[in-house]
UniProtKB/TrEMBL annotation:
Thymidylate kinase-like domain ranges (all copies): 11-180
Name under which the protein is recorded: Thymidylate kinase
SUPFAM superfamilies, per the entry: P-loop containing nucleoside triphosphate hydrolases
One Gene Ontology term from the biological process aspect of the record: dUDP biosynthetic process
EC number, UniProt record: 2.7.4.9
Xref: PROSITE patterns: THYMIDYLATE_KINASE
Primary enzyme class: transferase
Amino acid sequence: MCTKRGALIIFEGLDRIGKTTQSKLLSNYLSEECGILCERLAFPDRSTQIGSLIDNYLQRKIEFNDHTIHLLFSANRWECMDSMREKLLQGYTLIVDRYAYSGVAFSQAKGLDKKWCQSCDIGLIKPDLVLYFNRGIQSNCLSYTGDERYETKQFQEKVESQFEQFRSSSHQWKDINVINSDNTNMRDKESIQNEIRLYVKESLEKIKSNNIEELWK
Ligand code: DGP
Ligand code: NA
Ligand code: NA
């Protein structure tokens, strides 16, 4: 095979912080303006059978204990790995909304053991770039509240402090601050998108072989 593999680019961060909007903008830009093979996906992928259990859980229609739902979220990533690997090797860059970092952060916020949380995602495809959406220092101009299970201010703040642990532990982790420097407003979409495009360009240039590494090994 002589095509260079695509990049695995992850969007991470709290709920309602702009990941979906920005990942769609990026995906359109790469495919339409740069002519780069590209696909966007999101975890949880609610379209599979496991994803439908997760969807019902998030909508509070069914219950699982904390360990069980953790394993289901992880299984939902694992069931996509073969097709993701195949796509990457065909040269597709994959833009992915959430990944194993959400898995660890959300479950740790409930009090589960970190090592246990990480263990079931060991061996997933390692990202080339993780864009972590955050609000910098504590800011009140974001609302996380929604109807789904995790969408309360109190829980999101716990998750936020768990996300922080990945900052220093990974060199492909880049912070995207969504709040203006005056700390009162959201940055405009274009400025965030431009920052993301620079990181993505850098990351695409770094791919020199078809080698795919594994997460947390
Ligand atoms: P989203 O579709 O991106 O809004 O995600 C749905 C919710 O599930 C959101 O509150 C984040 C949470 N979530 C995403 N991935 C995981 C995971 O692996 N484990 C847990 N416990 N929660 C997750
Ligand atoms: Na959500
Ligand atoms: Na989302």
